[in-house]
Design a protein that fits this description.
This protein is an alpha/beta fold. The chain has 19 helices and 17 strands.
């Protein structure tokens, strides 16, 4: 090392100071040797009360924990790994952060230039490993000042760089030996001071009623993922029906329609009151009926897009992008009393039909579990992918006011890292948090239950719908293939992925409280109980009757809505 070069620890201290100056308050550390200088510098900042450290041994869970922290705080959160395969394990979290516009900061430690390409242990090509999934990537050579790279990276992560949406970035920091503190270095005295972001609570906005000068139109407001309460306020102000996904954080208010996806055909082109226009807030991710509506050439649609978004490429969608509410109001018009009443009456009839069908059996089913979790959760709710979020979308009745802030990994809608994401949400939000997920999603991230000795335990209630396999495929075309019997047991093996894992034993291995329920009454009682720390509610159910249950729900809703609309 030349006399002009920084030592590894001095460079790391500069990097940490720059990260904190740019607003990073949480860093998730995965242990490793090459990343040691950053780990020691972060330990110093942690002792001084300037940053909050979390330690995870699994880099994938570390990445998703940081993702959850960034989701709940709205501020950049960082994850630190050593070199080699450790960096590759972050790819799923980076991909999700890219498509969901989450400011995730990847700090990957690396070998110095003289060791690259030599076969040195744990060395590979790390820069640009994430390709187009990061907003910015920088390679900082060993001994160099990393401040400029950190400043640029954080600017890109928060969306202030080149007018792009927020998203993940990579800082690839090379370190040369020695990687440990100098003999005279030591941790500062513990200050006890901590700086936390205030948790975001559920919101309701209020707009003045729409101008009478606006034309009456049969418009619906679709609130997709991350739409926000602005969608509810817009629908209410304009007298329009609100069709809101659970993770929109707009599924509440007087205009909300619960089982909306089962009603779209009743307001189709052949109906007495066909939909004329669609106003879209957020990203629609859950149902084919909604996708079909947005694909109709005879129904103009507009997308409210006040800031750049990451979930689609410009020009690749058919909706008209509008960046202000005045233009959106001109496009949408206002709903007549007849239009809104038709939707609300149909929605009430559909909700009653769903509730009645589900109450026909005491046994817990996916839709019944979704409805109960939706009803009972306060604080924060994380919804896993696959059937869990769709069960809530089908059966969760919109409340008068928002009951909880909802989070879900809908960037790519994968099941990766759901427990780790929920843990980050719980720790960063400082509120009681519930996560609803299926057994396959739970098992896919069982390592997310692992907390090292001394690590903070989140106040997290984990509701696992355990039907001994993957149920969602049975509701798709694969269910019909299985029913036809033409492929024997292939569908069950390849898509159902049956298992016999003892979740109680798994919970015990990780030191997490566990209880098992099998009826809706037992689940309602369990959800009503207070809890501290982490607890698992395992809901045992059978997925093999799920396709028939959904058929009965559709039939019941169809009959109930037909009667209401005929009376109109």
């Amino acid at each position: 090392m030349s006399s002009e070069e920084l030592t590894a620890l001095d460079a790391a201290r500069i990097a940490v100071a720059a990260l904190l100056l740019e607003g990073v308050r949480y860093v998730v550390v995965a242990p490793g040797s090459r990343s040691a200088p950053m780990a020691y510098a972060l330990a110093e900042a942690d002792a001084a009360g300037r940053v909050e450290l979390l330690v995870r041994i699994d880099e994938r869970d570390a990445g998703f924990t940081a993702l959850g922290l960034a989701l709940v705080t709205g501020a950049p959160a960082a994850v630190l790994t050593t070199s080699g395969t450790a960096v590759g394990n972050l790819l799923p979290a980076v991909m999700e952060a890219h498509h969901a516009a989450v400011p995730l900061v990847v700090i990957s430690a690396d070998r110095p230039e003289e060791l690259r390409g030599t076969g040195a242990n744990q060395s590979t090509m790390q820069l640009d490993l994430f390709g187009e999934h990061v907003r910015f990537a920088a390679d900082v050579p060993a001994g160099r000042d990393p401040r400029r790279a950190v400043e640029t990276a954080l600017s890109a992560a928060t969306g202030a760089f080149e007018d792009s949406p927020p998203g993940p970035v990579q800082l690839n920091l090379a370190f040369r030996d020695p990687l440990v503190p100098a003999p005279g270095d030591r941790l500062p005295a513990e200050s006890g001071r901590r700086v936390y972001h205030a948790p975001r609570g559920p919101l309701a906005l209020d707009f003045p009623p729409a101008s009478e000068a606006l034309p009456e139109r049969r418009t619906v407001v679709l609130a997709g993922h991350d739409a926000g309460p602005v969608a509810e306020a817009f629908a209410r102000a304009h007298g329009l029906p609100l069709l809101a996904e659970p993770s929109s954080n707009a599924r509440f208010g007087p205009n909300g329609v619960g089982p909306y996806r089962l009603l779209l055909a009743d307001f189709g082109p052949e109906s007495a009151q066909p939909i004329e226009r669609v106003v879209l807030f957020g990203r629609p991710t859950l149902s084919r009926p909604v996708s079909a509506l947005l694909a109709r050439a005879d129904v103009p649609s507009a997308l409210y897009q006040p800031v750049p978004v990451a979930w689609y490429e410009p020009g690749r969608r058919t909706e008209l992008p509008l960046d202000n509410l005045a233009d959106l109001a001109d496009f949408a018009g206002r709903g007549s009393a007849t239009w809104l009443d038709a939707w609300l009456l149909a929605g009430a009839a559909a909700q009653h039909a769903v509730d009645l069908t589900l109450s026909g059996s005491a046994a817990a089913t996916g839709p019944a579990v979704g409805a109960l979790v939706w009803e009972h959760t306060r604080g924060q709710l994380v919804l896993g992918s696959s059937n869990g979020i769709r069960d809530v979308d089908l059966a969760g009745a919109p409340a008068a006011e928002p009951g909880a802030t909802i989070y879900a990994n809908r960037g790519l809608a994968g099941i990766d890292g759901t427990l780790a994401t929920a843990t980050g949400v719980a720790l960063g939000g400082r509120q009681e948090t519930t996560v609803l997920l299926g057994d396959i999603t739970f098992l896919h991230d069982a390592g997310g239950l692992l907390l090292g000795a001394g690590e903070e335990e989140p106040n997290l209630r984990i509701v696992v719908l355990n039907d001994a396999g993957g149920a969602i495929f049975g509701l798709l075309e694969h269910g019909a293939v299985e029913a036809a019997g033409r492929y024997g047991t292939a569908v069950e093996r390849l898509f159902g992925t049956p298992h016999s894992v003892d979740l109680a034993a798994l919970a015990a291995a990780y030191g997490v409280a566990h209880r098992s329920v099998s009826t809706t009454a037992e689940l309602a009682a369990a959800l009503a109980e207070p809890w501290q720390g982490r607890s698992i509610i395992e809901v045992r159910t059978d997925r093999h009757g799920l396709r028939e249950l959904h058929a009965r729900i559709r039939a019941a809703v169809g009959a109930a809505v037909a009667g209401v609309l005929a009376a109109e």
